[in-house]
Amino acid sequence: MTAMRVDVKVVMLGKESVGKTSLVERYVHHRFLVGPYQNTIGAAFVAKPIQVGEKVITLGIWDTAGSERYEAMSRIYYRGARAAIVCYDLTDSSSFQRARFWVKELQNYEEHCKIYLCGTKNDLIQEDRSLRKIDYHDAQDFAEEIGAQHFETSSKTGNNVDELFQKVAEDYNSTAFQYMTGKTKLAWLRLLQAACHIFTDSPGS
Ligand SMILES: Nc1nc2c(ncn2[C@@H]2O[C@H](COP(=O)(O)OP(=O)(O)OP(=O)(O)O)[C@@H](O)[C@H]2O)c(=O)[nH]1
Q: The complex's ipTM?
C-alpha cells in the first residue's frame, strides 16, 4: 500500500448519530449505508484526492466519534486541522447545541481551523417539513457570526455533499499561499519572477 500525501487535514465533529460517517461514506464511496446504526469508536481516517482547477488536493478526513464518552479523543483529532465540518442534525435541536460547543472549542484552541457548519439529513425535512427543528435562518445567522460557511446536506440523496467538500478544498487552495512560511513564499516569488523574465525575454515575445 502506498502512502498518500495529505494536503489538508479535515475533521468531522458533532453529536453522535448526526451523520458524520454517512457524509464521509457518501462523499468518498458514493453510497448510503442502510441497516442498524453503528457508532464510530475513536475515529476513522480516509484520504480523498479532489480536483480544484488544474490542481489535485488531497483531503485527509478524520471522522470522529460523536459520543461524549470519546470527547477527549475527538480533541486530539482536531489538533492541526485546517478545516472542521461541524455537523448538526436538522431534526434534533440538541445536536445544534453540541455543534455550538465544538465551534467554541475550535475558536479557543484551533484558531486557524476554518469552520463549515453542516445541517444533515435534509431529505427528512423534504419529506416532512414539521421535522425541522433548526430554522435555516437561525443556523445561517450563527454561521455568519462565526465566519463559517453553512450547508444543509443529505447523505441519503447526496444533496450538497460534494459541494461541501469541494468548498473545503477550494478554500484551502485559495488560502494556501497565505499560510506559506516566509522562506517558501520567497522561493515561490523568485520562481514567479524568473518565469516572468523567461516569458518577457523569449524571442518573439
Ligand atoms: N435519512 C437520513 N438518515 C441519515 C443521514 N445521514 C445519516 N443518517 C442516519 O443517521 C444514523 C447515524 O448516522 P452516522 O453517519 O453513523 O452518524 P455519526 O455522526 O457518524 O455517529 P457517531 O459515529 O455515533 O458519531 C444512521 O442510522 C444513518 O443511516 C441522512 O442524510 N438522511
A: 0.99
